[in-house]
Amino acid sequence: MKFRPCIDLHQGIVKQIVGSTLSDNSSELLVTNFTSTKPVSWYAELYKRDHLTGGHIIRLGPNNDDAAIEALSAWPGGLQLGGGINDQNAAFWLEAGAEAVIVTSYIFKDGRVLEDRLRRLLEITGKDKLVLDLSCRKKGDKYWIVTDRWQKFTQIDITLDRLDYFAQYCCEFLVHAVDVEGKANGIEHDLMKLLGQWGKIPVTYAGGIQSWDDINAIKTLGQGNVDFTVGSALDIFGGDKLKYQDLVKNL
Q: Pick from 99, 100, 178, 197: CA 20 to 30 A from residue 83's CA?
């Protein structure tokens, strides 16, 4: 288990947003926990200095390309890039310095997997540079993959067999627990147990982490198989619950 850093971009600025409030239609209901006054390169350079590998940049909507390029230029090959990735731009972002590209919505339509798109992306990136974002929300007693700013439920729930299937195509999974994303109010324990049972390729969990108790729960429930990232609770994102340097020193 290790700490993975993150950079969330909204309108070209580093922000922390409550994930379930994201929408393509309007920003009126958007809940923003933090808006940085620092350039995106400051975060990339910080992570590079501290040798935090496997972190990610997520473009939340349009007008984030310049900022993403700035971050990748600050640490070429050091950060993954997600948000709007498809077969037309995946090669561009890898050439711009992304360690790997992260994809969700492009490979789903009408709630199902578009295997032809997934294979096409694989041909462009190679398995070692493709990360699948299996971000999910709970409905009933299952966790269902969601797309399109995390607003649309697919017909695909996360199971051990599903993880086996998707692992054919990628080097890692990124899993946002969307219902708790940005709320710094605790993790999704049932999801963590499920992810911890698997452990065949790297998995990074995001969502709700607010304390060392949460981090210890990830270690225990995730059986050491699940990495994690912290957003709104972290001091470099305006939080007062966890200190970045403590995570760097202790994990």
A: 197
